[in-house]
């Protein structure tokens, strides 16, 4: 065997051991009746596609999946717009301000999700939260005692702030790194030809960073579709689980509260299939771009 392929074998074996085996066990479980009895030692029973049939026939699952897609769509759009915008802004700032913005982004990115969610939960707390206090300073507005987490719409408004706040740093850093590789002489030539700043970005800069932006976009979709910690933490603070579950928390609820590991495995496999479709689209788009 020649070429770089042998060098990939050790890494491939490690990835297969760490992710392939658990994924295989998950797939096997999704075809079994695996409940509380099996957790305590009973032999799991093979039920073929029964778990998938039950999940796909359950309107609750489709409601949760639709909610997750909508939630991820909003978060991804906001994260990408803000991330790319901040990255472009950083290319225009001086060294001191660039370092300051980078440190701010790094602090937000480094904070553990559960800690960040708890802090934001305090900010939107009904009685003594900073958000209600500031809004109540507006004449004619009384927000003291208003619960942001009780209503599903305002619950996901808070969740969107948290998820976007934690996702923007990665998008900004990655895009900024790509922008730093755009040749200055090309931008100068476009400016001399009379191109406006927006035209230079759309017609010159963006084609150079399209591949990086596509990678970040796909990763953000995957991360936001399987979000768990932020939603679960907000639910424990005051959200209604039945109206605020996304796929991640729904799998946890089915597996723990419902005690149905088989159905939870089926939902997980369906989510993995969705992620594979998204990843496959990225791979095909990358291959087509390289062929051009």
TrEMBL record:
A Pfam match: BPD_transp_1
Compartmental location: Cell membrane
UniProt record, GO biological process: transmembrane transport
Family matches, as Gene3D superfamilies: MetI-like
Source organism superkingdom: Bacteria
Chief location category: membrane
GO cellular component: plasma membrane
Residue ranges of every copy of the ABC transmembrane type-1 domain listed in the record: 65-282
Topological category with respect to the lipid bilayer: Multi-pass membrane protein
UniProt KW keywords: Cell membrane, Membrane, Transmembrane, Transmembrane helix, Transport
Annotated SUPFAM superfamilies: MetI-like
Tagged with keyword Transmembrane helix: yes
Transmembrane segment boundaries: 6-28, 69-90, 96-123, 155-179, 200-223, 263-284
Family from the record: Belongs to the binding-protein-dependent transport system permease family.
Record's protein name: Sugar ABC transporter permease
